Amino acid sequence: MARPLGVVRELPERALRAGLLALSRRRSLGRVATRIPLTRAMVARFVSGVTFDEARPALERLRAAGMRTTVDVLGESVASVAAARAAADQYVATLDAVAATSADRNVSLKLSQMGLDVDADVCRENVARILDRAGELDAFVRIDMEGSATIERTLALWRELRPRNAGRGESGVVIQAALRRSADDLEALIAEGARVRLCKGAYREPAEIAFKARAEVDDSYERLMGRLLVDGNYPALATHDDALIRKAIAFARAHGIGQERFEFQMLYGVRRDLQARLVKAGYTVRVYVPFGDQWYPYFMRRLAERPANVAFVLRSVLGERRGQNPD
Ligand code: FDA
Asked: Which of 56, 133, 195, 197 is catalytic?
């Protein structure tokens, strides 16, 4: 049993990361993986449930622990107009379901799930419909950022549709520190008063357009974070990186930026200790809570972010086969 784990540990981290990201794009594997009951226990670490009702206790627990939340209906890269419309229907239903609870009226969605690569007009209609409903419910809508090929279209669509719930819940976008273009994008967004979430970037990008070394990505994050803290409109600092979080706190203190002017964001199931510590220290922490059956690419990206998670997953599988409790 020690052998597969040992092999995994020996693999160079970057190769493993690249391999996992490549696997995350293999739809056929996703179709198989989602049918294997054994994977459920592992997936549950990062995914709050298959239905909204299953996700609800997680939302309530987080609220009771002083956290804010944003709900994500899992799904991306739909292959048909019908699937895109169904995903938009699901978001509208989720907004209604969230509004019927005491959870934050805040959702995050992906444009590839709304049909960006299938039919741009359908995608626009879908997002408009969601923003209209969000406006009626005073709910916030975050448009997640996907691979670099989608950035121009994502920002353009958000700019076009932003007025639909401006002043009635609002909407916002995401900037990825790993991309070289992000400093320019961020300046434009700051000038527009955009609500920006800053993250490192979860997609595999070529060196011509992206920083590859961890230190370069972290430096970029720190620079962009400084710009957002000084001039941004209630920025969201999405990271689990202790060092960057400490730098954000020190920067805000040094510049007299109050805790109410920004928030930290983290993923469901990741660094729960850090989430709790920040809440205790008085910071706003919003947890990104995904639910749904289309968890495969999301789950694979979480493995890629921390290849040690692969060992965790293997241990769970092997433990379960031998009748032991998974970690
Ligand atoms: P980093 O990867 O350096 O991790 C720092 C530490 O955090 C690790 O040492 C480990 O302790 C812990 N950690 C990080 N990831 C973990 C994991 N999966 N499992 C266990 N521990 C982990 N990306 C994107 O391209 N577009 C988007 O729209 C978003 N949206 C988004 C929203 C929110 C709320 C978050 C937190 C993140 C995103 N991301 C994203 C993902 C983001 O780009 C990035 O891939 C992850 O946050 C991991 O990067 P960190 O900043 O946490 O640093």
From this structure: 197
